[in-house]
């Protein structure tokens, strides 16, 4: 798919179906946000994007306000959640690059995240272009999204 066609097809909101990371050495598969992660990724026609992923059924805080969260509650909430936003571009066939402006993980702010994009109908598969360190091993990472209705 050429870059213009992919960019046009990305526009909209997608719901996360799965996120699996497979170890290069031994094939061990992990699901960083559990077997049924929840998430949304949105691409706008103007070139902005936002991604949110969470582990379902995260523990609720004892008190009803974020600023009253205990350190361990805040840590558990962050451990089960990933969020970032910024702009995106499609520089070549089958690649989307996210330029991170905001992120729950501060180390990503100001970086770019390249993903191999394979879109087929209402399914979007975003993969790491090369293995990365995930849960203590070099792994491939694959997120499968379905167009939100």
TrEMBL record:
Domain Lipocalin-like: start-end pairs: 11-148
Any one Pfam family match given in the protein's UniProt record, by short name: Lipocalin_5
InterPro entries, per the entry: Lipocalin-like
Domain of life, source organism: Bacteria
UniProt protein name: Lipocalin-like domain-containing protein
């Amino acid at each position: 798919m050429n870059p213009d066609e992919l960019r046009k097809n990305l526009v909209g909101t997608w719901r996360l179906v799965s996120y699996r990371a497979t170890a290069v050495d031994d094939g061990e598969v992990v699901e960083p946000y559990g077997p049924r992660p929840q998430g949304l990724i949105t691409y706008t026609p103007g070139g902005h994007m936002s991604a949110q992923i969470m582990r379902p059924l995260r523990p609720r805080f004892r008190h009803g306000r974020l600023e009253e969260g205990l350190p361990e509650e805040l840590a558990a909430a962050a451990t089960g959640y990933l969020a970032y936003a910024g702009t995106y571009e499609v520089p070549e066939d089958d690649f989307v690059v996210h330029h991170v402006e905001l992120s729950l993980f501060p180390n990503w702010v100001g970086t770019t995240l390249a993903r191999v994009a394979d879109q087929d109908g209402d399914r979007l598969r975003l993969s790491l272009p090369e293995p990365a360190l995930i849960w203590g091993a070099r792994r491939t990472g694959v997120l499968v999204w379905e167009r939100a209705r």
